Amino acid sequence: MTIHTRPCAAFLSHSAALSGAELLIARVAAACTRTTPVVVLGEHGPLEGVLADRGVPCAVVELDRSVQQHTVGTTSGVVAKTAATLRSTRELARALRRLGVDVVVTHSAKAHVYGGLTGRIAGIPVVAHVHDVVGTAGSSRANALLLRAALAALPRAVIANSQTTAASLGRSARRASVIGCPTVVPDVVPPRTGTTPTIGMVGRLTPWKGQDVALRAFAAARTAGLDPAARLRLVGAAHFGDDEQFAAALRHLADALGVAEVVDFRGHRDDVVAEIAACDLVVHASTRPEPFGQVVVEAMALGRPVVAADAGGPAEVVTDGEDGVLVPPGDVGSLAAAMTRLMADREARARLADNGRRSVVRYALPHVVGMIEDVLLATAR
Length: 381
Ligand code: UDP
Fold this sequence. Notes:
Layout: E1 8-13, H1 20-31, E2 36-41, H2 47-53, E3 58-60, H3 65-68, H4 75-99, E4 103-106, H5 109-122, E5 126-130, H6 141-153, E6 157-160, H7 163-167, E7 177-178, E8 198-202, H8 211-223, E9 231-235, H9 243-256, E10 263-267, H10 272-277, E11 281-283, H11 294-301, E12 306-309, H12 312-317, E13 325-327, H13 332-343, H14 346-359, H15 365-379
Parallel strand pairs: 1-2, 1-4, 2-3, 4-5, 5-6, 6-7, 8-9, 8-11, 9-10, 11-12, 12-13
């Protein structure tokens, strides 16, 4: 067993994709100062490269395929999945003991279940760091019940990334510590690169992120007086399940709306700062309540004005008209009006951006990681 001078925290995720929660693990683990982090993934994937670049140790304990699968399905499927979960927990418990782990931090819905069970089996306390609103459209009622029960029974402490997420946790809602997602707030705003008027949107391509809403709003803004030279920059790729189909549908939609020539599909970019630096305005258009919405805070930290959907995390972060603009989720007309108005008003953009930078200091990386480590240290054995 490895002996550590500082308590060892194992951050667990079933997924090694590059979506927000996984990137947050890399950001937090690399900034820990009072714990020794190790990331334990349930599969191989691109996150391993990001962790290696940041000098964060990583181990992969591959989960049985049936644990990785999304749906539970039939009764025999449930039995098979339960058996596979128990097999996975035994292997994981051995790995956690070998690594000398003092606290397990579970970061994904599946990890809350198999990691929570493993912590119990191995006698290692667990913190569930919840990044998703439980019980949203897209997850079944049975999954939501199972997850809420697991969160009530297994972890010793719970962190939720927003009030919205905390409120969705059932019995665990009241004991959850609400800690927003950390972001790097640079001392100096990155200078604007390029000269083309640009509206940006950053986020993985998936229907509820609302890239279709942004495309429609952009097309409507063009007919309502937006500078015809303005471009829409969509940063992000499909990472999960059927999202490739949505990505293809977005390109067809851009064609159908007659804006394909002025829309840039940038795909997944590792350097999001450079992408945001090329934008005059950053929009967020999720059609269901975003658990936190790291992209909104990132744009604010980089001194770019934001327009965000008025629900979930962004509605907790942004004060409408002060440090950003909020529009009803899915409302193409309101988003188009905000695009048109703000792209024509440099002073309004500068005022929102300045105020935004000031507000997001509360999410600065060292400060937030300090709060997370407080919870981990209070829980570690
Ligand atoms: N991101 C990235 N490259 C991209 C698109 C997104 O690195 O091409 C990052 C983005 O900067 C943010 C995260 O992915 O840190 C997305 O987090 P968010 O909470 O906004 O959404 P999630 O994916 O968790 O639903």
